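Researcher: Let's try something more involved. This one mixes different molecule types, so please make sure each is placed in the same coordinate frame as the others.
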Amino acid sequence: MATKILVTGGTGYIGSHTVVELQNAGFEVVIIDNLSNSNIGVLDGIEQITGIRPAFVEGDVCDKTTLNALFEAHSDIKGIINFAASKAVGESVEKPLKYYSNNLVSLINLLDMMPHYGVKGIVFSSSCTVYGEPDVNPIDETAPIKVATSPYGNTKQISEEIINDYIRSGAAIKSIILRYFNPVGAHPSALIGELPNGVPNNLIPYLTQTAAGIRKQLTVFGNDYNTPDGSCIRDFIDVVDLAKAHVVAMRRMLENDQTEAVEVFNLGTGRGLSVLELIDAFQRATGVAVPYVIGERRAGDIEQIWAEPTKANTVLGWRAEMPIEDTMRHAWAWQLHLQNK
Ligand code: WQD
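Model: All components are placed in one shared frame. Result:
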């Protein structure tokens, strides 16, 4: 009998890629998603890749009635991966209450219900944003958590504290917190990928839309930073590598391999790449030019951050493997697939 996992936000970018890897690993998946920032057509892509259509509940994790009904209908859920959250940094500054309400109430509902329904553990989708601007790079899990630079980042910090406090209070559940660096790319099949709503905020979807001629040019937000080529540095991690880390974490949690009730892992490649280096990697990998200009810095941007992934490599037993050129080719193939839909 396959172990059943609830994936909240499972039709989203990282969620959908994680559902594919969970199914590939033999787990049975139930998705709950309110489709506020994703498209139900993603289920077709997942099914085309794995041959299995995950059970799907359209609903809001903030709604207790919906969530109770889901757990009553799927009383054999053993683990949860919680992606469902609002995640646009800029929007969180304009609408902080939306972010605090949506991101925190959904998590609290899940935690509150888990013991009652026999759910053993929760893998939580966190972010390197909790570190703010690092004093040193690469950054490991012992780095200080700094004052959040956005309400979005603050919801991730508060969520981690809620999980720790609840488990410290004696709740009979476990948790693995995964701090993502910059997820990029798409599934090699080009059947699922990033589906930004409107004008993309993140670098790669804007870059691929520019390469496709949808956008006139990419603006590089500043080349006067204290970095080798003046542009910001990030740890760009392939979304499929990231998805596979969730499967490893879920297995670790359910097979009682955890050494602490709450474990934290930085999920990155350990390689810092600048914005200009990433543009160059895309052009080299695809042969497609990306017209860009240098613009002003973007408010709130961190100058440089990349992961020290040794703990994830050695304790979790996971390592990012996809070469950046392949990641760029997958992102481009996905962009072309979107245009031929
Ligand atoms: C990356 C770099 C920009 C767009 C955010 C969230 C983080 C996570 C990932 C959710 C920066 C530059 C971008 C453009 C550019 N989200 N850039 N031109 O800001 O590092 O991280 O997304 O978990 O929590 O904070 O990602 O892709 O927006 O920017 O020059 O059109 O690309 O200045 O240096 P970011 P990003």
